[in-house]
């Protein structure tokens, strides 16, 4: 397999921006996970994202922008939206907003829905790329559909390889789980996916309750809502205390455990655990001498919501 990882320098950035402008695919780092990017307005390029991932086209994509004011070009905004954007962007928060209905080139990005998902990533390389390309970049996580999201350029290479024109290397992602997705098309804030921004932080800032959508797993408004997602290649059990780990299981611990193969955070820090989660699941599945993965219980607060959501789906048996 050819190596299409490019280091972060001005020449490669310009080449990546040209690739996007010409309808190609560029994987790039964000604060959360690596994205697989294409020009949001280029239907053919967007179609090739779905094809490269093996993702059904009923799963809409997130658009990535580099300036808040760009929101107004294709989404309906109001004071609430702009205030949240000014406070939390750039950062690990995606908004679902009503889209302007006169831009038909966005139909595929939005899977024909009347809404569009938008975010501004907190990552200099991502922001520079979007600005240099001069268009918003549509990007799902840069992995095969239903597989573990990538947090390094090497993960992208392993998962998508030659299906991507370029992979820009910005080192490991700081947050490690995808964005929190909030639906702002209703009077109340509804969380469609738990992610890198905690529900508590949103509630503290707004003084409002954030409702959690459990969705319909057979007709997800976010594919993160599919029952089976983020799956490693061997069976995984969760909420397993140390004493119940079987001999043929690879044990991913959390907090004070004595004999973990890997520990998400020995000090019990949920942010650190989120950063390590996908890389450790990938590492675990390479240990073919084990028959399965067992994981410690994770507290259901802060980023624990996002971690539990991902491992719950990863452990789901079809
Ligand atoms: O952290 C992230 O959000 C990463 C990085 C690359 O930005 N992206 C990401 O994309 O996780 P993806 O495609 O793996 O997940 C995007 C989620 C999907 O669950 C999708 O259904 C939801 O966003 N989504 C996109 N557009 C939507 C819309 N119009 N209405 C409801 N959900 C939408
Ligand atoms: Mg994904």
Describe the structure.
The protein has nine helices and 15 strands. It has helices at residues 10-21, 43-53, 71-74, 79-88, 124-133, 153-160, 199-206, 270-286, 304-314, and strands at 5-6, 26-28, 35-39, 62-64, 93-98, 115-119, 137-138, 166-168, 180-183, 189-193, 210-212, 236-237, 249-253, 262-263, 292-295. The chain is an alpha/beta fold. Helix 1 (10-21) crosses helix 5. The protein has an eleven-stranded mixed β-sheet with strand order 1-8-2-3-7-4-6-5-9-10-11, sandwiched between helices. A four-stranded parallel β-sheet has the order 12-15-13-14, with helices on one face. The structure holds threonylcarbamoyladenylate and magnesium ion. The site of threonylcarbamoyladenylate has 28 residues, from strand 5, strand 6 and strand 10.
What brief labels describe this structure?
318 residues, eleven-stranded mixed β-sheet, four-stranded parallel β-sheet, 9 helices, binds threonylcarbamoyladenylate
């Amino acid at each position: 397999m050819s190596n299409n990882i490019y280091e972060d320098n001005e020449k490669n950035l310009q080449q990546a921006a040209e690739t996007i402008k010409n309808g190609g695919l560029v994987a790039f780092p964000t604060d959360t996970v690596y994205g697989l990017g294409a020009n949001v307005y280029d239907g053919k390029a967007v179609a090739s994202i779905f094809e490269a991932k093996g993702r059904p086209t009923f799963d809409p994509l997130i658009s990535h922008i580099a300036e808040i004011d760009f929101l107004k070009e294709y989404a309906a905004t109001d004071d609430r939206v702009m205030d949240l954007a000014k406070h939390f962007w750039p950062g690990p928060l995606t908004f679902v907003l009503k889209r302007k209905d006169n831009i038909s080139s966005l139909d595929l990005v939005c899977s024909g829905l009347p809404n569009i998902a938008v975010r501004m990533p907190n990552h200099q390389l991502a922001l520079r790329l979007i600005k240099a390309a001069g268009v918003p970049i549509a990007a799902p996580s840069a992995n095969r559909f239903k597989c573990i999201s990538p947090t390094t350029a090497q993960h992208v290479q392993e998962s998508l390889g030659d299906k991507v024109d370029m992979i820009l290397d910005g080192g490991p992602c700081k947050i490690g789980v995808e964005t929190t997705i909030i639906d702002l098309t209703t009077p109340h804030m509804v969380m469609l996916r738990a992610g890198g921004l905690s529900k508590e932080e949103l509630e503290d800032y707004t003084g409002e309750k954030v409702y959690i959508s459990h969705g319909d797993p057979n007709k997800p408004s976010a594919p993160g809502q599919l029952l089976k997602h983020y799956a490693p290649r061997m069976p995984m059990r969760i909420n397993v205390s140390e004493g119940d780990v079987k001999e043929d299981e690879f044990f991913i611990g959390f907090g004070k455990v004595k004999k973990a193969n890997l520990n998400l955070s020995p000090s019990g820090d949920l942010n650190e655990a989120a950063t390590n989660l996908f890389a450790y699941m990938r590492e675990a599945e390479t240990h073919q001498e084990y028959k399965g993965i067992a994981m410690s219980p994770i507290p259901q607060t802060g980023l624990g919501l996002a971690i539990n959501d991902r491992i719950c789906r990863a452990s789901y048996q079809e």
